[in-house]
Structures are given as C-alpha cells and as structure tokens.
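Contributing: when you submit paired examples, paste them exactly as shown. First protein:
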Amino acid sequence: MGRRASAFPSSCPLESSGLLGYTFAPVPNVKGETMKLLLVGSGGREHALAWKMAQSPLCDRLWAAPGNPGIAECAECVEISPEDTAGIVKFAKDNAADLVVVGPEDPLAAGLADALRAEGILCFGPSAEGARIESDKAYAKNLMRAASVPTAEARIFSDLQQAKEFVLSRDHGVAVKAAGLAKGKGVVVCPEPYQAIKPLEEMMGKKVFGDAGNTVVIEEMLTGQEATVLALCDGKSIYTLEPLQDHKPIGDGDTGPNTGGMGAYSPVPILDDRMMARIEREILVPIVDAMRRDFGRYEGVLYAGLMFTPAGPKVIEFNCRFGDPECQPLMMRLQSDLIEAMVATAEHRLDEITLAWDPRPAVCVVMSSGGYPGSYAKGHEITGIADADALDDVKVFHAGTAMAGGKLVNSGGRVLGVTALGQTIADAQKRAYEAVEKIRWKDCYCRKDIASKAIRA
C-alpha cells in the first residue's frame, strides 16, 4: 500500500503559514546526488536503518556512531557516544556529512538535532522541544488534552503519598508511567489499583529509573488490541507509514513485566485504510498542529502507540523516533529509497514522495539474554547467525552484541531481532522462528507467540 503525504487542512495555520511561519537557513537539495551519511545509535533499530540506508544509490559513505557488530557489516563504525553532542557535531562537520540520522530518543531529548541544525547540517530527527512528546509524559498528556486527542484519563503526581492515596481511591485498574525516559520499561499495568503501590514506591521512592520517576502519570487502564502507527513529519505535511503491532511484556500471552519490545509484525489486520484515515484525522494531525502552536514545527518521525478500545483508538504514548523492534519489520517491507524519504522530510518536501511497500507481511522475533528485563549475564558467545541469515527472506538485526576475543557475544538485554518476510503472517512467523532455532548462546530467550494475535484474527 502506498500513501501520499497529507497536508494539513487549509483552515489550519500549519498549512496556511507555508512553513509554519518560521524562518530557517535553506539547505541544499541533494536529491539525486550521492551523499555522506552519519547514523547515530547502536541498537536493533539502527541496524535496520543502516541496512536500508546502505542499499540506497544515494549512499556514498555511511558512518555509524557508535554502531554495533551487525551495523559494521554495512557501515563504518566510529567510537562516539550518542550522548556526545559536541563529538557528533564535530565529526559531521569534519567529514562533511550531508545528512545525520538520529536513531535513539536520548540524544534527541538532549538537543542533538538542534546542535546539528545550528551548524547548518541537515538532520533527520526532531528538536529537543519536539522530543518532549516522549521524554516528558506529563507534557505529552497535557498536550493531548489541549488538542482533544483521544487518550486515557490521567492524573499527574510529583508527590509519592498523594499518588498512593489516589490509586487506592480507584475502583478500576490503572497504568503507572514514569514521566521521563526509562528505556521502554517505565510503564506498569495494574489490573487492581492496590498493585500500583509497589511500582510507585520503586519509581518515586527508590528511584529505580533515576530522575525519570520524579513525576508519574497514573492513567485509567485501557483494554483492547494495541498497534503502532508511525508518520514522517516535515512541518507542513505528514506521511503515514505501514502499521505495526509490538509485543511489550516479556512472557507469552502478554504476561510479565514490560520490556523495550519482544517482537513486532506488519501489517496489522485490525487497521484498514478507513481506520488509518481516522487515526490521521483524529490523532496525528491534531497533535502535530498542537506542537506547532506550542514550539514550532515537528520534523522527523512521530510514533503513536495506540489502544483500540470499544470507544475507538486512544493514544497510549507518543515517541519521537522509530520504534525498536518495530523498525525492523518496517524496513524489511519498505521497497522505496529510505534516504530519499529522509532527505525529503528534512528539506520540508514530503509532498514530493510516494513510498512503496512489499505486500508480504514481516515478523520480527527478539532474542534476549536470560533474565531480561531484570539482571542478566553478558559475554556468552553467539553462534548460528550466518545460518539464519542464509534463509530466504530472513535478516538478523543486531541490538545488544559485541566482539570479545574475536567472538560475537551478547552485551545487552535485547540481543537480536530475527526478522522474516512471508506470503502470509503465519508464513512470516514460521520463517522467523525457523531462523531463531539456528541461533544459540547460553540462556538465550524469546517469546514463542509473536504475531499469533494476527494469525487468530
């Protein structure tokens, strides 16, 4: 399915003011010319982006800061931390990078995109103000209220005792969210209100997420199926991408604590063209316009995590970057030039592109270290990736891997994203798990039911 970029209604200031009424330095139109590219990040999302970026005929040279062993197969890795804003800007300037793509949320929240643009460097990713849509859940909740975006009813607390008293006054389940960045782990769903006491004490009292838990958002517990819709945003237009469904809990059947994501698939049977149009109209356009009124244009990719309730779609969260592991099946299905789309976004001309997608579904199964999202051992040798990669329509994306003594070892909680295409979702799921069976390291773990909801639908 291909979707044209949607401009905002003519009655909306976002459209009538041209480029939002803000002035900015013109950037060169590099469409059609080869480019030197810098990708910031080291996870599975960044491996998927690097893999797709390297396929572009526009790609002359691709660096990754800092990258990982999988990314090293398609890019030159440089030892610069994503949090080293000055170091990344200096490298981009010294090497005349034509475009910098920022993968993770932390450097975006710290203002990396702002620093790059201040030096005249073309960047794919929102400003620090834009990244607040993810880095400050209290801000995001208030913005949704102001924009009349459908979302869960919520209260915001910075006092532990008041938060505890509130949840104990509730008659129905709640979701407790650390307001700051918590690597996808700062959300605890509590079917019974009393169950919220422990996560509140851990977030606000014990500071298990550091300052991210100083403020919490307590929401009504929504029920229904979840899905993710991403959109490219250039400040005057949005372009919705193919929908996905993520699997956050660690255990089969969506049991156990939340993680950064244990798998994803695309497309999503419950999201047809009519529902996508509704999401764009009721959620994406209003929130981007609300950000425009608040601070200016939002540019980059906007991630909307949605719950499809009996009352319709409601926002669970917004993120300021591609999802991980949602990016992996998305890149497997994308048939168009990713660099061309990113440059069009950064140059505020999304209306010039049309993206093409492989009609076949894609399924990504995350293989993690045993014990994740709690404590886990590192340094175990990983085998079998080459055999898995050799299967038709399969790609293994590295997330938490490293080289030690000439061997590939696990170095993080989520280690690999084993991703496959298939004629049907069931076929893609089968291929992905066939590939998983070829990969081994001590205490590796994965869910066994990724995409099963779609197969039962």
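Second protein:
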Amino acid sequence: MDVFTVRDLREHTGTLIHDAEKGKLSLVTKRGRPVFLAVPFSKKLIELGLHASLAITLYKEHHLTLEKAAKLADKSLEGFIEILGKLNISIVNYSTKDLLKELKDFE
C-alpha cells in the first residue's frame, strides 16, 4: 500500500491511478493523519462489498491478521476462510525458510 500526502497528489496523481489499476490500495494523509483510502474499483468490490473486499486486500498485503480481516469483513472466521478459499487465496503464509525450519523440527 502506497502512502501519499495531499501535496503528493498534485505531482503523483498518475501513480495513484496506476496503483488503483493494479488493484493496490493507497492511503492519502494530511499532516501525518489519514484523510482517505483509495480503494480500486473492481468486480470483487461489487460482488463482495466494500468491507469484505477491503479486508481481503489488507489480509493479502499482510496489513491485517486473518482474525482482524474477518472482523472487518463482518464474517465469522470460518466464513472469511471460505471466501478466501473461493478466491484461491491461501491462509497459510509460510516463507520457504520458515517452512524448512518447521520441517526440520519434525525430524
């Protein structure tokens, strides 16, 4: 997620639009405080609604835990996991290094 100041918008509007076209969220701040969140318009946004779509994006970008994302989406944990499954989004976030360490601990 990119963060822009209100001043940045004058010079970086193109970047904000480019990010939205890529499906990235952008936060705009004024004097260090959040003013608004630019949420890309997508089919997922229409089908799932703003809260669920935002929760999914923030979860995928590792800004929210699974539990907090489910709460933002106003879903049970199981319901949110089901939505992620339908979108082929993994709920397991192991790096290769972490996975190898876990496997080694089982030996």
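If you have annotations for the second protein, write them as plain sentences, like these:
Residues 45 and 53 are 5 Å apart (CA to CA).
The helical segments are 6-21, 43-48, 50-60, 66-72, 77-86, 96-106.
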